Amino acid sequence: MSRPFLLGVLGGMGPLATVDFMHKLLRATPATHDQQQIPHVVWNVPQIADRQRALAGEGPSPLPQLLYGIQQLNRLGVSHIVIACNTAHHWYEALKQESDAPILHIADATLEAIEDKPKKVGLIATQGTLDAGWFQQRFAAIGTESLLPTQDEITRWFVPGCYAVKRGDLQQGGELLTLQARALRERGAEKLVLACTEVPVALAAISSPYLNEAIDPAEALAQQCATLWLSRRNDRIN
Amino acid sequence: MSRPFLLGVLGGMGPLATVDFMHKLLRATPATHDQQQIPHVVWNVPQIADRQRALAGEGPSPLPQLLYGIQQLNRLGVSHIVIACNTAHHWYEALKQESDAPILHIADATLEAIEDKPKKVGLIATQGTLDAGWFQQRFAAIGTESLLPTQDEITRWFVPGCYAVKRGDLQQGGELLTLQARALRERGAEKLVLACTEVPVALAAISSPYLNEAIDPAEALAQQCATLWLSRRNDRIN
């Protein structure tokens, strides 16, 4: 017997990117009134050890706080969980083992959403996400090559761009991340994969033209959630 | 001994207004990195009986679903609860009795946020909120007169404007609610009180000039939450 549909969102990484993900959930769901929208509960608690620093060996692991969030969502009887942060998928297997509810993987959702396979994509992501290789492996399996930011680009544009979003400076975040996007396009990427949830927030804030050529994993994940919900919309939540 | 700070948001009424409220929470909190932002958990489950219809005697009461949401937030050990919907405050006393965590009242937060007392305010709100009189009573206590929409305006502009937002038509919602705002200004309101969480969403979507002369109860409530959080930011969440 399946549980009534209730989506749990593990957020807080960052909190603004989580709000952006919720917007995407609502936009992905055709609805003429409130009651048709996707029922969800959001753990938007940003008191989590910094993921990028942990993976660089410069800070404590966020795993205890991630596990706590997953446990709290499970206590509410969620039927599915998503993690509104690409980098946090580093701990996906550990979280999955502790969760009664299945956890959807953002890279699986991204690949599912791709219609025409590009020859080359540019991955805009944290060093931790790049090192993990989830996106590269999945793209390779469909014959798509992944171009990665250089170490220099990450230091100059990607990292300060992300932290600008985290302190609310979307303008600066947008400008820095646009430079990162342009560099990947100039090296031959047909599409850009915005594989860090801060990135689409920043590019949208400055109406960056690179948004139009982008594959947005957060949007793909929202779309997957909406599809699941639409197939079960007649269930009752309580 | 007080609980660690964790804000519970009873949302879903509507789900987009709840996302807008979360934006306001983040904007109200000065933060240079994720970890300084307000920790919150959001019950954004819109499968709740329609509040306006219930209060008009045309549909079932939303109280069971509201109580369920309050119970679920309490199960997570929230320290405070807010309800991101003015009309749902009709059931405030019943919800308060069932909640371990204190529930902040949106009209109290609004009055606290007022700096210079206007002589006359225009209340843009559902019939249920207007009938309850929370805002009028509190404004009367500080010597401010409340101007209300007429029955005809509510039918022509307010109600269809709100339901346009709920079906995602922010443009139409913004236009209709701007007509409502203009009518109240023309009758002498110095400030407009946007006492329905759909209203600021719609006016912002069309960059309505009436936003600049408005008192936004959702923003006032977010500000109250941020002030509480700032006074306890050194506590740990888990």
Automatic annotation (TrEMBL), chains A, B:
Q: Which UniProt keywords apply?
A: Isomerase
Q: Quote the EC number.
A: 5.1.1.13
In terms of domain of life, where is this protein from? Bacteria
What Pfam families does its record include?
Answer: Asp_Glu_race
| InterPro entries with a match to the protein in the record | Asp/Glu/hydantoin_racemase, Asp/Glu_race, Asp_race
Q: Name one GO molecular function term.
A: aspartate racemase activity
Keyword Nucleus among UniProt keywords: no
Signal peptide segment: none
Q: What family is this protein classified in? A: Belongs to the aspartate/glutamate racemases family.
What is this protein's name? Aspartate racemase
The protein's organism comes out as: Pseudocitrobacter corydidari
